[in-house]
Amino acid sequence: MPPIDDPVDFIRRETTVKPVPHAEEIRLHVADEAMDLWQKTEEDLGELGLDPPFWAFAWAGGQGLARYILDTPSLVAGKNAIDFACGSGLVGIAAMLAGANSCRAVDIDPFAIAAAGLNADLNGVRLDLEIADLTRQATPSADIVFCGDVFYDRTLADAVIGFLDRLLAAGITVLVGDPGRSYLPKVRLTELGVYEVPVVGALEDYEIKKTAVYRVGKS
Length: 219
Description:
Shape: globular
Number of helices: 7
Number of strands: 9
CATH superfamily: Vaccinia Virus protein VP39
Number of domains: 1
Strand content: 25-35%
Structural class: alpha/beta
CATH topology: Rossmann fold
Strand order of the largest sheet: 5-4-3-6-7-9-8
Oligomer: single chain
Radius of gyration: 16 Å
Helix content: 25-40%
């Protein structure tokens, strides 16, 4: 595989535009053959320094959040949002379509930011794109922060929980979308909605994941 000098070109070449199964108002550049792209990047991780292509899939937590946002536009109308660990940008796009004033789509992966930009253009909205690890920065300014499917890894979950505590202390609303990942906190969560979300069976244990949207409360 040749060096990837242009993430945008790579994403366009390796993905197909499809509607999101549980939020069909939104279209994304997604992997047409899920395992092919995942394995391609995994095989070249050492040589190219690529992260797994989380940006190439509409994960269950993000789909649940997107559906809830689109169905509850008053949640974001006129507000400044952050799509934390944005991946494809799905949740941020939903927020902008629902009337948010702005949305920062933030991820540590440059390919995710490139994908989020392409997907925002595809859906006719603007995201403020940023490559950053917000868990290691000062508490950001926002009205509401969305976290879709971020509790699949213990180290990441620990960092995210500390970050969410800082957001809550600053009076920022935090919503999480999660299909029951291993490290989802078991307390401080108020369930707002539950969905049966179609997912990529090759990457998950089921074709449909029961996914909930929660408001996070203070400790």
